[in-house]
Amino acid sequence: MSCALTATDLCLGYGGADIVHDVSLELPAGRISVIVGANGCGKSTLLRGLSRLLRPSSGSVHLDGEDVHRMAPKALARRLALLPQSPLTPDALTVRELVAFGRAPYRTALRRESSEDHAAVDRALTATTMTSLADRMVSDLSGGQRQRAWIAMALAQETDVLLLDEPTTFLDLAHQMDVLTTVARLNAERGVTVVMVLHDLNLAARFAHHLVALRSGEVIACGTPDEVVTAQTVKEVLGLDTVVIPDPVTGTPMVVPAQADATGTETLGGAA
């Protein structure tokens, strides 16, 4: 199995204090990888390191065999797109104008928007089912629509690798499913390699081909959802006693908290 992104002995942090410690990863090409773990465990920090947004204190990151820190910024931006957590939308911008920002890596002072840029924007709008909303103001969109517009902007870069930092934050379940289904369709139809940070283990298990579980900046487990989402691993990562059962819709692992009722008797998800 080929790997789009690899990290070797990666250490990352802020102000001289490492948050991610000696992480080595191989993220498969053409698949959806999801990084999971408790709040503050280093998920977003790891994603920032993979994207070159954060320089490691030690270790390296390679994209298709090339060290990302030795690549020219525009060359990297033509091969890897990053959508950060909760991006701020400029005022008075239409969806099409937002998506067009994704073409920035292909422009120079002498090269303005071309017919190819317009075509790439149209392809990104179509892929995210946003064509009918292209002339709407981004500020007027629902949360799910706005997130799809941002994903379209990243897609307009037409990279082989797409990194998404918690793309479902602050969305209700319907909009979460909308965004993740869009991402899954892009992966299936275009072969885009996706690396996401998600909080919800059940959604991660449903949509991921490959999972990476972090605890305190270290990789506890990685592999398929069936390999990673076990009661033991969830206990190690989240400190929570759970029962893992098949999702009744997809058959993927589904985590159900095991709670104790008032008498101290173990119950499944709080049900007697």
Series of H and E elements: EEEHEEHEHHHEHEHEEHHEEE
Radius of gyration: 20 Å
What share of the residues lie within helices? 25-40%
Which stretches of 5+ consecutive residues score pLDDT under 50? 267-272
Shape: globular
Counting helices, strands and paired strands, the structural category is alpha/beta
Strand order of the largest sheet: 6-7-8-3-9-10
Roughly how many Å apart are the termini? 45 Å
Q: Largest beta sheet, briefly?
A: 6 strands, mixed
- Which percent band covers the strand fraction? 25-35%
Please count the beta strands (DSSP E, at least 2 residues each): 13
Mean pLDDT over all positions: 89
> How many helices?
9
Q: Which characteristics define this entry?
A:
272 residues; alpha/beta; six-stranded mixed β-sheet; four-stranded antiparallel β-sheet; disordered C terminus
What does this structure look like?
The chain has helices at residues 43-50, 73-77, 95-100, 115-127, 143-156, 173-190, 201-207, 225-228, 231-238, and strands at residues 3-14, 17-28, 32-37, 58-63, 66-67, 80-83, 161-165, 193-197, 210-215, 218-223, 242-246, 253-260, 266-268. Helix 4 runs antiparallel to helix 5 and helix 5 (143-156) packs parallel to helix 6 (173-190). The termini are far apart. 39% of the residues are buried. Helix content is 31%, strand content 29%. The protein is of the alpha/beta class. The model is unreliable at 267-272 (pLDDT under 50).
